[in-house]
Write a structure and sequence with these properties.
Length: 121
């Protein structure tokens, strides 16, 4: 992994995007923001982020559809995010490939930063 960690935030909630942007400001990070799944997929293809924080429920392409459209995302760390953690039936192939699932609202945003910082090692 490069010295600068490239982070992509795909979430339709402006407050979530701003919180992540603020959390990861500084020379160790390069943050890309997408307000929907389609734009998120485009940025993922173009910028090749080290890690992606991907909301599940969004208008247009939802988080699972972004993963499906992306196909192979090996080499990229993915954390899904949602306030809804209902039925995950049929999502097993994606759940096995992602790094984790963050439930909104976040209880410990510092833990998220620690996880990303741990990717440098």
């Amino acid at each position: 992994m490069s010295e600068v960690i490239k982070i992509l935030i795909i979430d339709d909630e402006p407050l979530i995007r701003r919180a992540f942007q603020k959390l990861f400001q500084g020379p160790a990070y390069q943050v890309f923001l997408a307000e929907d799944g389609q734009r998120g997929h485009e940025l993922w293809e173009k910028e090749k982020p080290d890690c992606v924080f991907l909301d599940v429920i969004m208008p247009g392409l939802n988080g699972w559809e972004v993963l499906e459209k992306k196909g192979d995302f090996s080499g990229t760390h993915v954390q899904m995010m949602s306030a809804y953690t209902g039925d995950l039936e049929g999502k097993k192939q994606w759940i096995e490939k992602i790094d984790g699932f963050l439930q909104k609202p976040f209880e410990d945003i510092a833990m998220i930063k620690s996880w990303v910082d741990g990717l440098k090692k």
